[in-house]
Amino acid sequence: MTDTTPTRAIDLSHEIVDGMVTHPGIPAPGISTFLTHEASAARYAPGTTFEIDRIDLVANTGTYLDTPAHRFPGRHDLAGLDLERVVDLEGVLVDCRQRADRAIGPEAFDGIAVAGRAVLVATGWDAHWGTPAYLSDNPFLTEAAARHLVDAGVRLIGIDSLNVDSLADPRRPAHTAILAAGIPLVEHLTGLGALPPDGWRFFAVPPRIRGMATFPVRAFALVG
Q: For 84-135, what is each residue's pLDDT tens digit?
C-alpha cells in the first residue's frame, strides 16, 4: 500500500537580518547592496536589470553549525564535513521545555533511542530571541549529558539555546566532548515545538568553505 501522507518542510532556522545580535560579544552582520537594479541598467539590454548584495558577518551568526575545527586546531573544517553527517538524518526531539533546571543532564535522554540519529534538544529558549534575555542564563547540556550522547553514537546534536554549554563554564565541556567525537553541532535552532517526537528527517547544510570552522545553515525538518 502506498503511503500518501504529505511531507511538510518545517524551518528550524532564525532569519538573519542586518544588525542582529546572535551571541554576546560577536559583531552583528552588515547587509548592503553591491549593485542595485538601477545601477545595473546601463550594463544590460533595456528592461534587463540585476541586483547583487553583500553581507559582512562573523560565522557564528543566526542558526549555525560547528565542525571539530571550531574547538580543535587541525581537525576538519566546513570543507571536510561529510554531507552524510548533515543531510537526511533520522531525527528525534528531546523536549526539555518544562524543566526547571537550566542544566540538562543525561537523565533527560532516558528511554530515548538516540543512536545514529540527529538529536534536537528543545529548551524553548528561542522564545527570547532578539531580546536581552536571550543572551545570558541559557539552558545547556551538562558534560555528562554530552558524553552520554557521544557514547550512545548520535549523528548530530542540535539545541534551540544560546549555547550548548553554560557561559559560566569557560571549559566549554559539552563543545569539547561533542566536537572531539567529530559530531556536528547546530546551535540557535528555533521552532522545535512544531516537531513531533520522531518520524522526521533533519537537514543542516553549510557552504563548503575551506579554512572556516562554523557557518550559518538553513536547518529544516521534513515531517511525514
A: 999 999 999 999 999 999 999 999 999 999 999 999 999 999 999 999 999 9
**Residues 214 and 77: beta-carbon distance below 8 Å:** no
177 by DSSP, 3-state: which?
helix
| CATH of the domain spanning 64-223 | 3.50.30.50
DSSP 13-35: -PPP-TT---STTPPPPEEEEEE
Q: CA–CA separation, 114 vs 120, rounded Å?
A: 10
Which ranges constitute the DSSP H helices of the chain?
37-40, 143-152, 173-180
Tell me which residue has cell 542564563.
137
Handedness of CA 194, 128, 215, 21 (dihedral sign): positive
- CA dihedral (24, 129, 219, 114) positive or negative: positive
pTM: 0.95
